[in-house]
From TrEMBL:
SUPFAM superfamilies: Cystine-knot cytokines (SSF57501). One of its GO terms (biological process) is innate immune response. The keyword ATP-binding does not apply. Residues 86-176 form the Spaetzle domain. This is Spaetzle domain-containing protein. One of its GO terms (molecular function) is Toll binding. Transmembrane segments: none annotated.
Length: 182
């Protein structure tokens, strides 16, 4: 009995540390805390709730999209400039998550159906090591995934209601530096 409690507690602690560490990958269908596939997705219950509540219909669409840098003062000369490169290798992702895990480890079903979509587009770090950074004396660099908090319309399985809840989602990848200790 006591051994089972100790094993369960150890497994719980290890699992929580793995899930809370960023970036995480819950399974092959997940990017961080956003998962695009779920076998137990309550499609019919969500469809019924949406049909009975018209106020959400116009809110469907992309929640977060990548922006672009404004052109300089003279866009005609822009092609002569050396192209800018990100120091970190990134991949652009666009996902329509089916569920999301919050900081409280509670799994919530994101409302994502044919007639109601919530999409997120972001840059994901491919590696922690900057690809184009040169070694500078006394400086360490690494690529760090950045996050922002956005609101999703989710289905709460416990209350069987639609609600807005905020979750951290990846946005971009930054090259960070710090001075080495000498």
């Amino acid at each position: 009995m006591q051994l089972n409690i100790i094993l369960s507690l150890t497994l719980f602690i290890v699992t929580n540390q793995c899930v809370l560490a960023k970036p995480t990958r819950l399974n092959k269908h997940c990017v961080d805390n956003l998962c695009i596939s779920n076998l137990n997705y309550p499609t019919k219950k969500i469809q019924e709730k949406l049909a009975n509540t018209k106020k959400y219909k116009e809110l469907s669409g992309d929640i977060l999209r990548l922006g672009s840098k404004p052109n300089g003062a003279n866009p005609m000369l822009r092609f002569l400039e050396e192209p800018e490169r990100n120091l970190c290798r990134t991949r652009t992702r666009k996902v329509y998550p089916k569920f999301v895990l919050g900081d409280d480890m509670e799994k919530r079903y994101v409302v994502n159906l044919k007639k109601f979509r919530q999409g997120i587009e972001f840059e994901q770090c491919v590696s922690e090591t900057p690809e184009y950074a040169t070694e500078l004396m006394n400086i360490e660099t690494k690529c760090v995934q950045q996050y922002t908090v956005i609101r999703f319309l989710v289905y709460n399985g416990a209350t069987e209601e639609l609600e807005y809840t905020e979750y951290p989602v990846p946005t971009t990848c930054l090259c960070m530096y710090k001075f080495k200790k000498t």
